[in-house]
Design a protein that fits this description.
mainly beta, nine-stranded antiparallel sheet
């Protein structure tokens, strides 16, 4: 059994015989310090998650004071030690922001400052040290065979829908996609395949930045796929906060990654859109499929609506299709919004019999043809409507926005998108 002294130092870098690896558990809720999504990339967020002993929760300590996980060092975002600062991993350096000490009341502090690592539900940040329970941490030494725990503090407190008649597209026998399913491609009966992106070309956080140019191409994929995004000067629907593609969007590990977290002290989302014809985002009628999930539960401040929106910008008269839609802490839904007869702004058809948690990989498909809209969850029809179906051109927006307050954080991961044109 390894005992952590009251003056223990968190540290990492290149492991040596003297280095020790720990799990770092919050006394507040028993969750562990976690490199979110196990993404080994500088700038990735550090959160709290159920303890599982995986590599992204194993922090190696050395005498220099750094804490390393998956080859990167723990620090406040941007290496800035300040109140309210979230945590990330970064390339290891000699910065004082990467040197952690265990101080009074089992607190963990960067650079010997008066700011303490502070736990919340699923989140972690720096706050002025107060001695409160949410600033107390338990370090548990990890061995190669078993995990032994010794602490410097007390243990933490204790109707079936119909199946689509359209045959599902074929996939490759050798699947290497993160979700375990390759992107569908090839023509279908009545549909001509026109676009696919499996996100095989990496793009770092910041590369999707857009201050106020909605027509700017912010990402070009490995096969020339082009993407736009709502710029920072556009506000989201519920909280009227700016979209932050510069701090949210990246492409890594074969996914389009939405890193949903507080940016400048506020929850932030993003809203990208593909140029499905190579030069345009728009078509009349089409089949749109996306495979996605979120990497953890409890993202209470975030809401997704992957939607088709009219080029005319006239709503609700020219319609709106949303699938999936819903708060990311719950299950997916789907809605077909229309104006109906007269000025009915609340008319909608609702997808039924959906039991799809956002934390699981699912394929969501919108199939829009003349006079008809269908939604398919993993190739099972969950909505089939002929009510006031629009005919004007629309664009596909992968909208993740804020709806509430708090400091939870996590990753919305899109494995692939695929689009077909209507052939009749």
């Amino acid at each position: 059994m390894f005992i952590v002294s009251a003056a223990a130092i968190l540290a990492v870098g290149t492991a040596s015989a003297a280095d020790t690896t720990y799990t770092v558990k919050a006394n507040l809720n028993g969750q562990c310090l976690d490199n979110s999504g196990a993404i080994a990339r500088a700038g990735n967020g550090v959160l709290l998650y159920s303890c599982n002993g995986q590599a992204n929760q194993r922090w190696t300590m050395d005498s220099s004071g750094r804490a390393v996980v998956q080859g990167f060092c723990l620090q406040p975002v941007g290496g800035v030690i300040a109140n309210g600062r979230n945590l990330q991993i970064a390339n290891c350096s000699t910065s004082s922001a990467q040197k952690w000490k265990q101080g009074a009341n089992s607190s963990l502090r960067p650079g010997g400052t008066s700011y303490c690592l502070t736990a919340a539900s699923g989140a972690v940040s720096l706050r002025t040290c107060s001695g409160a329970t949410n600033q107390k941490w338990t370090l548990s030494a990890v061995t190669t065979s078993t995990t032994t725990t010794t602490t410097t503090t007390a243990a933490p407190a204790t109707t079936t829908p119909s199946t689509t008649t359209t045959a599902p597209p074929t996939t490759s026998a050798a699947v290497t996609n993160p979700s375990g399913q390759a992107a569908p491609s090839g023509d279908l009966t009545g549909w001509r395949h026109i676009f696919v992106d499996e996100f095989t070309k990496d793009a770092a956080i910041g590369s999707w930045a857009n201050s106020c140019e909605p027509d700017k191409i912010v990402y070009t994929g490995a096969q020339g796929q082009k993407w736009r995004t709502y710029p920072r000067c556009y506000l989201d629907t519920y909280q009227k906060r700016p979209y932050r593609p510069d701090a949210v969007l990246s492409v890594t590990g074969g996914t389009l990654d939405f890193y949903l977290h507080q940016v400048d002290g506020k929850p932030a989302g993003a809203n990208p859109s593909p140029l499905i014809t190579g030069t345009s985002q728009y078509q009349s009628y089409g089949r749109y499929s996306v495979r996605m999930r979120v990497d953890r539960p409890g993202l209470n401040e975030y809401y997704v609506a992957f939607l088709l929106w009219p080029q005319s910008e006239v709503w609700p008269q020219d319609g709106e299709f949303d699938f999936p839609e819903g708060g990311l802490a719950g299950n997916a839904g789907g809605f077909h919004h229309y104006s109906g007869v007269g000025a009915c702004s609340g008319c909608q058809a609702v997808a039924t019999d959906i039991d799809a948690s956002f934390t699981q990989w699912h394929t969501y498909t919108m199939e829009w043809s003349p006079g008809r809209i269908r939604y398919l969850l993993d190739n099972t029809v969950v909505l089939d409507s002929t009510l006031f179906v629009p005919s004007g051109p629309m664009r596909w927006q992968l909208q993740a926005e804020t709806n509430g307050n708090g400091n939870s954080a996590g990753h919305l991961q899109v494995d692939w998108v695929s689009v077909w044109a209507y052939n009749g």
